[in-house]
Amino acid sequence: MTVNERIKEVRCALKLSQRAFAKAVYVSNGYLADIELGHNEVKDRLIHLISSAFSVNKHWLLTGEGRMFNSTPEEKLERVTSLFNELYPEYQDFVLRQIDELIELQNVRHEKP
Predict the structure, then answer these.
(1) In sequence order, what DSSP letters do the residues of 36-94 get, joined into one string?
(2) Are residues 83 and 47 in the same domain?
(3) Mean pLDDT rounded to a whole number for the chain
(4) Measured on CA atoms in the order 34, 50, 28, 43, is the torsion positive or negative?
(5) Which structural domain, as residue segments, surrounds residue 79?
(6) Do 59 and 84 fall within a single domain?
């Protein structure tokens, strides 16, 4: 599997459209489509942007070795739970409100036309 194919695999694993994925990594839809089809060479800048935006393991992206993501959703949830439990109740309420707002924003930004 090529790095181009692994980029598509990441996008599909995240359940993002090409449009949403391209927007998150600051490239055009057409450029991303050409990458996924193997028509464009993958530049280091794109590898860095994908890794940063989606917590993708750079080594996996380049070689296919190791895990796709730097941490699993379960590991992230465990960390969030631990940090959340350290907060005072009023700050826990604030965090929950922020999560609600982020979900609303996400739903608006990733709506299908």
Answers:
(1) HHT-SPPPHHHHHHHHHHHTB-HHHHHHS-S-SBSS-HHHHHHHHHHHHHTS-HHHHHH
(2) no
(3) 93
(4) negative
(5) 73-109
(6) no
Tokens describing residue 66: 């190791």
Q: Distance between CA atoms of 31 and 25, rounded to whole angstroms?
A: 11
Q: Are 37 and 3 in contact (CB under 8 A)?
A: no
Q: What does the pLDDT look like over 48-97, one tens digit per residue?
A: 999 999 999 999 999 999 999 998 888 889 989 999 999 999 999 999 99
Residue 98 and residue 51 share a domain: no
- What CATH number is given to the structural domain containing 42? 1.10.260.40
Does the CA dihedral 2-48-113-98 come out positive or negative?
positive
* 68 belongs to a structural domain: no
